[in-house]
From TrEMBL:
Organism the protein comes from: Alishewanella longhuensis
InterPro entries: AAA+_ATPase, ABC_transporter-like_ATP-bd, ABC_transporter-like_CS, P-loop_NTPase
CDD domains hit by this protein: ABC_DR_subfamily_A (cd03230)
Keywords: ATP-binding, Nucleotide-binding
SUPFAM superfamilies: P-loop containing nucleoside triphosphate hydrolases
One Pfam family named in its UniProt record: ABC_tran
Full protein name: ABC transporter
UniProt superkingdom: Bacteria
Domain ABC transporter: 9-235
């Protein structure tokens, strides 16, 4: 059956500058229901800028962003309730305690899931009656996540949500993300430097590099596309290997290790013939792919 619903997020030719500096250059991308998108990029690549621009905290210099089909700066309070956001630096109210904060927030959220809130507060050992200014960084981060998850958003945007979480809480958090993505079909955009975590939960990847999305697509396709070729020649290797879409090349005598993008298995026999070599194709994990794309 055709799906005529608008994308949850539609980014069209988005450019964003700070002063003279272009941070995001002509980005076009979309997010559909049920997508879990890992947003990857080096420090300063523009991940926070992209996430905040998507949410309408700043206007693009060029292009536009639509949330649920509406221009992001035109969405009303009701539509805002469909969004959950965990910012890199939390915006918790310091002078009240988590119990009061959660209760206050829940009053304005028609879809608030008190059972989920109670469960997470219990398993994450949130000190409910301690003033927020006295909580540890990790406890604050957990509270921000609970605030963002429990109103059952249709779009969840997470900017480095796990940086301060211990490994147990991180695993629990990832499990919750998978649950809500599967059960509620929530669209999730998730930025983190813990790439192994992203690989566990994401089905799509956006890689931000040189101000653009140098990759956007299915995680599995990315993993099939970027591979490392281990080449062992029977004789001498040609001076120029001339392998299409080479990302990085390391040579040593009759052997070479070449990382390529846009790989297709069907290319293998021709390449072996061309180089008079045996080639082993190594699949890479997401962290290795990220490192190779930035080598
Ligand atoms: N308010 C601002 N004014 C001027 N430049 C800014 C401002 N905020 C961010 N920048 C610059 O924009 C670029 C992108 O920053 P951003 O915070 O979006 O990167 P990031 O990918 O989220 O980085 P990190 O992984 O370190 O959190 C950086 O060069 C940063 O210095």
């Amino acid at each position: 059956m055709p799906n005529n619903l608008p994308s949850i997020v539609q980014i069209s030719q988005l450019t964003r500058c700070y002063g003279q500096h272009t941070i995001l250059d002509n980005i076009t991308a979309s997010v559909q229901q049920g997508d879990v998108i890992a947003l990857l990029g080096k420090n300063g690549a523009g991940k926070t800028t992209l996430l905040e621009t998507i949410l309408g905290f700043a206007l693009p210099d060029e292009g536009e962003v639509r949330l649920f089909g509406t221009l992001h700066h035109d969405i009303d309070a009701k539509e805002k309730q469909r969004i959950g956001f965990v910012p890199q630096q939390d915006e918790l109210l310091e002078q009240i305690n988590p119990h009061e904060h959660l209760a206050m927030f829940a009053r304005f959220q028609p879809n608030w899931d008190q059972a989920l809130c109670d469960r997470l507060c219990h398993s994450w050992e949130i000190p409910l009656i301690t003033r927020i200014s006295k909580l540890s960084l990790g406890q604050r981060q957990k509270l921000s996540i609970i605030l963002a998850l429990c109103h059952k958003p249709q779009l969840l945007v997470l900017d480095e949500p796990v940086a301060s979480l211990d490994p147990i809480a991180r695993r629990q958090f990832l499990a919750e993300l998978i649950n809500i993505a599967v059960d509620q079909q929530t669209a999730i955009i998730f930025s983190s430097h813990i790439v192994t975590d992203m690989e566990r939960v994401a089905n799509k990847v956006w890689v931000l590099k040189d101000h653009r999305l140098c990759w956007q697509g299915e995680l599995d396709t990315l993993k099939e596309s970027v591979v490392r070729l281990h080449i062992t020649a029977t004789g001498a290797l040609p001076e120029q290997l001339q392998i299409a879409n080479t990302v990085r090349e390391v040579r040593h005598g009759k052997t070479a290790m070449v990382t390529v993008s846009h790989w297709q298995t069907a290319l293998l026999p021709t390449l072996e013939e061309q180089l008079q070599a045996q080639i082993r194709v190594e699949q890479l994990n997401l962290e290795d792919i990220f490192l190779e794309l930035h080598a």
